[in-house]
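Justification of computing resources. Each target in the renewal requires a structure prediction run like the one illustrated here; the chain below, 216 residues long, is used simply to show the kind of job we budget for.
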Amino acid sequence: MQNTKLDNEENKAEEFKTGTTTIGLTTEDGVILAADRRASLGHLTSSKYAKKVYKLDEKIGLTIAGSVGDAQKIVRVMRSQLKLHKLETKELTVKGAGTLLANILHGNKMMPFMNQFVLGGIEDGKGVIYDLDPAGGLMKNERFTATGSGSTMAYGVLEDSYEEGLDHEEGKKIAVRSVQAAMERDTASGNGIMVAEITEDGFEVLEEKEVKSRLD
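Resulting structure tokens:
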């Protein structure tokens, strides 16, 4: 009987494993979000062009790890809610957006969204990033964070390379190197890297050639 219980707990843990690598880090000018481009279905690569970094508002972005369908619904809901708040009251801060998403996830914890998220943006002129788990846990990170099956490898690069007051251009290089390191060792991560930067000027996705230049 006890073995069955343990098996059920292990199966639930398996459900929350995410085959991807996403990272977020802060710089002196804002936030860098990055992720690989591979979407997997078991042992099958279902897409080589998956989008895992999304713009939610002019100065807020989100990375996704886990179920694509669940994540895309969250992106749609968050975009509409942020627009609604802007029209009815005022624009939400990054912390406010994080709290909103945490409440949505917690409200569905009995049938959870099978995802991990990194939320990043500009608040009071500075870059901030938050981690969110499927149950709505919200944690602020002052420097960097990573999610997905390749996060262990990505953390190795981040821990080794990150410094306080990181230059924004150097931040892009570290973000790319972090995801690349994960792609080298994690079979569920691969097929290119998507990078987005968020500064006072807004949200911008780097062109593919610009991302590749960070690997030189």
